[in-house]
Amino acid sequence: GAVLLARRITGPLKKLVEGTVKISKEDFSQKIDITSQDEIGNLAQSFNDMSRKLLLARERMEVASNKLIQAEKLTSIGRISAGIAHEIRNALTSVKLNIQKLVQSDRLDETEKEHLSISQEGIGQMEKFVKELLDFTRVSELNLARFSLEQILDESIKTLADTLELKKVVLEKNYKEGLPQVLVDADKLKQVFLNILRNAFDAVEEKGEINISLSLLKEQEGSKIRVFISDNGCGIPEENRETIFEPFYTTKASGIGLGLPIARKIIEQHRGTIRVKENAAQGTSFEILIPTEEER
């Protein structure tokens, strides 16, 4: 009896874990075939509802992206995405609550609860997906204060220290001394730097190189701090150098292609610019220009 009960629980749990792992990799066609009238059945129903909404969300966004001209696209996609993101968030909440009920119940042993923890990690990936959608659609005020870009860059690098160590990436910094502080939203700029650095880490091989430089650029319209981040990874084809800033464009197996559009949006809020520069060697180079405080 106990063995039969364990099989009745473990089998459906494996289906749920496999489905969650696949959907966290953006295979939204997953459907869990569990019809039991218990906590596991409720979780499966919540899961199927969520995967259906995710699939519908992606289809609706692709249609919007393909049909609308560029001037209308950002506004329309933003409006659609905001509504979809809230729908998905509600479905995610239902799945999380059902998983928590199962974890807290006496029906599962520790191994089965560990299986469910894998599902919880997958849910975390989907929550990141929703957060990116909402970040892209929100027009939030900047929380401005004086900061040195050296400090924000160093904090970003520190956040990724484990990734650096794991891949044995060589990171070189070249910061010009005496650069002025700038009036910026430090958290938002850190989000930009983290996105570019993570892309660089993904692009380089083990023991690859990433270079970061900071300098002062004096132009006719005023002084700017120049942030230059380059890597010796696989690079971006010339024809894609502008496309990468468009919403939902991605070459990665996972990800929804909003990291760089969000980065551009943040930089433009600071009255700055971000672009991909031609790299003499292989790899990718990003140039970010932020106006100095006296020019803002």
TrEMBL record:
Q: Which residues form the Histidine kinase domain?
A: 83-294
Record keywords, A-Z = ATP-binding, Kinase, Nucleotide-binding, Phosphoprotein, Transferase, Two-component regulatory system
Q: Name one Pfam family in it.
A: HisKA
List the SMART domains: HAMP, HATPase_c, HisKA
Task: From the UniProt record, list the reaction(s) this protein catalyses.
Answer: ATP + protein L-histidine = ADP + protein N-phospho-L-histidine
Q: Which GO terms describe its cellular component?
A: membrane
Gene Ontology MF terms: ATP binding; phosphorelay sensor kinase activity
**Record CDD domains:** HAMP (cd06225), HATPase (cd00075), HisKA (cd00082)
Which principal EC class is assigned to this enzyme? Answer: transferase
Q: Could you say which EC number(s) this protein's record lists? A: 2.7.13.3
**What SUPFAM superfamilies does UniProt report for this protein, alphabetically?**
ATPase domain of HSP90 chaperone/DNA topoisomerase II/histidine kinase, HAMP domain-like, Homodimeric domain of signal transducing histidine kinase
Q: Which InterPro entries match?
A: HAMP_dom, HATPase_C_sf, HATPase_dom, His_kinase_dom, HisK_dim/P_dom, HisK_dim/P_sf, Sig_transdc_His_kin-like_C
Chain ranges of the HAMP domain: 7-59
Q: What is this protein called?
A: histidine kinase
What is the scientific name of the source organism? marine sediment metagenome
